[in-house]
Automatic annotation (TrEMBL):
One of its GO terms (cellular component) is nucleus. PANTHER family: THYMOCYTE NUCLEAR PROTEIN 1. Residues 59-221 form the EVE domain. Signal peptide: none annotated. Residues 1-49 are annotated as: Disordered. Specifically binds 5-hydroxymethylcytosine (5hmC), suggesting that it acts as a specific reader of 5hmC. Residues 1-14 have a biased composition (Basic and acidic residues). The lineage of its organism: Eukaryota, Metazoa, Chordata, Craniata, Vertebrata. It comes from the Eukaryota. This is Thymocyte nuclear protein 1. Pfam families: EVE. Gene3D superfamilies: ph1033 like domains. Keywords: Nucleus, Phosphoprotein.
């Protein structure tokens, strides 16, 4: 069996237009109470003068497949246990072949945290937190003819695709299933909570997704709750 040391992301992306998203580091708010989303909304509105058009992303959600699936003869499985088994619990996040997802990769900054999300499996959801330890650089798999993500149209002098390096931080205190996050999303759509526009539901097929500070804090607060 050929060892595949590099991270393989879920190939469930949809084609999108090439769009750069603004990226800015931000300090977390003092509180991250699960009941604090109304205050977050008021603060956001006051800071923006009531305008909701400018959104700052400072955290991420990275989808990876924990169950075996062959793509062009290569198993693209990469679970959180696979990441933890890597040297220094660090690996490159390669294989992204969607322009919007690629642009999100290019916007990532060292030290930013992301949710590690198990995708395309029996029960998808968030299992861990990782951090960005190396900013975007050319994805070597685009030039490897034996790799399922090989791109014959990409040139080394002007690579189309990028990757970052991520490192394991910790497991979440409990598994946070997609079904639970979706229930909050639907509730927040009705009354203006922080998950109302969460990309996990508005652009669900993207394997790299940005999160606002409010989205990240609210989802993280769920690990303190008992499973529903």
């Amino acid at each position: 069996d050929k060892k595949e040391p590099d991270a393989k992301i879920a190939k469930t992306e949809e084609e999108t237009s090439d769009k750069e998203d603004e990226e800015k580091s931000a300090k977390p708010p003092a509180g991250s109470s699960k009941s604090g989303w109304k205050n977050w909304k008021k603060t956001k509105e006051s800071e923006s003068g009531g305008e909701e058009s400018k959104i700052t992303y400072c955290h991420w959600l990275l989808k990876s497949e924990p169950e075996s699936r062959l793509e062009k003869g290569v198993d693209v499985k990469f679970s959180i246990d696979d990441l933890k088994a890597q040297p220094n619990q660090t690996t490159c996040w390669d294989g992204v072949r969607n322009y919007q997802a690629r642009n999100f990769l290019r916007a990532m900054k060292i030290g930013q945290q992301a949710f590690f999300y198990h995708s395309n499996c029996k029960e998808p959801g968030i299992v861990a937190i990782v951090k960005i330890v190396k900013e975007a650089y050319p994805d070597h798999t685009q030039f490897d003819q034996k790799d399922p993500h090989y791109d014959s149209t990409s040139r080394k002098e002007n690579p189309k695709w990028s990757m970052v390096d991520v490192q394991f931080v910790r497991m979440t205190k409990r598994f946070i299933p997609l079904s639970e996050i979706k229930a909050h999303h639907l509730a927040h759509k009705a009354d203006g909570g922080p998950l109302k526009d969460m990309m996990l539901f508005t652009r669900q097929r993207l394997s790299i997704q940005p999160l606002t500070q409010e989205e990240f804090d609210f989802v993280l607060s769920l690990e303190e709750e008992k499973p529903h």
